[in-house]
């Protein structure tokens, strides 16, 4: 039987929640700050800036889903914003219920990224993309820091599923 106070048993969970919510907010702010910098200073006037032989800064507007999927269809920006916001809310609930630091980290990055792109859709009617990696004439679709958070967060969640399988098997 445990003799420590209830607050002591739950302190790490509260700290983990604060860490997750703080990381989500930090990633959201990083995303919005980089988009603001690109729009207000770097792309005045809009042009492609070669940074390295494999990397440019460009200005693009994604009116579709990830990497421009459904971009040719005229979906109202609020539809995708509501969809992203709903997913972010569900992920926040998951974050508040989990006790695993890797899962919290992954969820926080996905939440911060989803909210960053949601704010773009609300404010601009589209998502601001500006990172352009390429190999010769083959260009990956332009993306932003919110997308980096979503992809890295999803990778952390997948890594956790493999680590958890290994722990459960042992």
UniProtKB/TrEMBL annotation:
The active site is at residues 129, 147. Its main location: membrane. Its EC number is 3.4.23.36. It is found in: Cell membrane. Pathway: Protein modification; lipoprotein biosynthesis (signal peptide cleavage). Keywords: Aspartyl protease, Cell membrane, Hydrolase, Membrane, Protease, Transmembrane, Transmembrane helix. It comes from the Bacteria. GO terms for molecular function: aspartic-type endopeptidase activity. It is an enzyme of class 3 (hydrolase). The chain crosses the membrane at residues 12-30, 78-95, 102-119, 139-159. It catalyses: Release of signal peptides from bacterial membrane prolipoproteins. Hydrolyzes -Xaa-Yaa-Zaa-|-(S,diacylglyceryl)Cys-, in which Xaa is hydrophobic (preferably Leu), and Yaa (Ala or Ser) and Zaa (Gly or Ala) have small, neutral side chains. This protein specifically catalyzes the removal of signal peptides from prolipoproteins. Belongs to the peptidase A8 family. This is Lipoprotein signal peptidase. The lineage of its organism: Bacteria, Pseudomonadati, Pseudomonadota, Alphaproteobacteria, Hyphomicrobiales.
């Amino acid at each position: 039987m445990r003799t420590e106070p209830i607050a002591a048993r739950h302190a790490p969970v509260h700290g983990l929640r604060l860490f997750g919510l703080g990381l989500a907010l930090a990633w959201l702010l990083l995303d919005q700050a980089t988009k603001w910098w690109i729009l207000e200073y770097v792309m005045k006037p809009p042009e492609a800036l070669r940074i390295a032989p494999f990397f440019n800064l460009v200005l693009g507007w994604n009116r579709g889903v990830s990497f421009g999927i459904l971009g040719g269809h005229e979906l109202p920006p609020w539809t995708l914003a509501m969809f992203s916001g709903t997913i972010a809310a569900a992920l926040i609930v998951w974050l508040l219920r989990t006790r695993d630091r890797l899962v919290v980290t992954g969820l926080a990055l996905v939440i911060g990224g989803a909210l960053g792109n949601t704010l773009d859709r609300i404010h601009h009617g589209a998502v601001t993309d500006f990172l352009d990696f390429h190999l010769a004439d083959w260009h990956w679709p332009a993306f932003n820091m919110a997308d980096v958070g979503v992809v890295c967060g999803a990778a952390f969640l997948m890594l956790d599923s493999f680590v958890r399988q290994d722990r459960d098997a042992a």
